[in-house]
Amino acid sequence: MQDLIASSLKYQNNTLSVLDQYLLPHQQVWHECDDVASMRDLILSLKIRGAPLIGLGASLLVAHLAEQGTAKVALAQAIDDLEATRPTAVNLMHCMAKLRIALQQDDYVTAIVSAAVTLFNEDIALCESMANHGAALVSSGDNILTHCNTGALATAGIGTALGVIYKAQQRHGDIHVWVDETRPLLQGGRLTAFELERWQVPYTLICDNMAASLMAAGKVDKIFVGADRIAANGDFANKVGTYNLAVLAHFHDIPFYVVAPLTTLDVNTACGADIEIEQRNSAEVRGVSGSFGEALWAPTNANVYNPAFDVTPAKLITGWVLDTGVYDQQQVLVGELKRLV
Ligand code: MRU
Q1: Is there a catalytic annotation at residue 253?
Q2: ipTM (interface predicted TM)
Q3: Is 189 annotated as a binding-site member?
Q4: What pLDDT, in 10s, does the model give residues 300-338?
Q5: Among 142, 180, 228, 266, the one annotated catalytic
Q6: Among 18, 93, 148, 279, which residue has the most ligand 1 atoms within 8 Å of its CB, making it the best to mutate?
């Protein structure tokens, strides 16, 4: 397979490597990966994360295994095992479905490699299109609030919601970003802050529970977030805490946009209530860990509720920024999303 390079995922000289997003920003460690168990572990531990990127990482591994001469039946099993790692982000299912089709071809090795390379390159183009559509919604001097990490680290390109912000900053030069730290795993505080710093976009880091008072003070002009799955009726799942922001935005009359590629659209899921929400380990809420070490602050056996995502209903969303354009509530309510795929 040809070399493919993204911010946190690369295939170079027949070697697949993943930048450890759990250790960023203070340690930059790349893990080589050439078997399904390692990729499963990287995905489950969020060393590789973000809806588009987990699909691409899994796809490149399957393509690599195919080129190494892995038997057809083992490739089918690899696709099933990788698909089962995280249930909410539909991009992973989308990628694995493409590989299953390729596996049916006579020359399935060539077909799988071609499918994986296409998925990777398409993601770069999808990011660019979303960023262009989304940046048109941003005005000079806007203060934009975002949640979790939706940048280059989470995709093969410049990102989804963060790609919009990056593009808007390139156009206007005076954008400021409020970055939700995003408990429990701090993708905002660790990754979005890291990316904005690298891109030289002015930002201010806040704890998630500070968003309400910022909005009340008139300091948030727009909100842009990503998505892990958008249902046919426009409801969407994203990192837990997104729904809080949508409710707050509605109350304060602040435009709230979701940014995602068509690969995040799941028209087979009728509404948000049908989206499976991943439940994660209690330790993530009882304390915190990362490149800085580990801290446990809650009682060792404290009962914990730890859904990785929540669902924002369509009625709270101002606009769906997709690679094909920006859709408003009226369009989504009449079924426009279903017509796109
Ligand atoms: O658990 P994570 O870090 O994989 O969750 C990521 C998110 O919720 C992102 O907002 C979403 O995947 C969109 S990324 C372009």
Answers
A1: no
A2: 0.98
A3: no
A4: 999 999 999 999 999 999 999 999 999 999 999 899 999
A5: 228
A6: 148
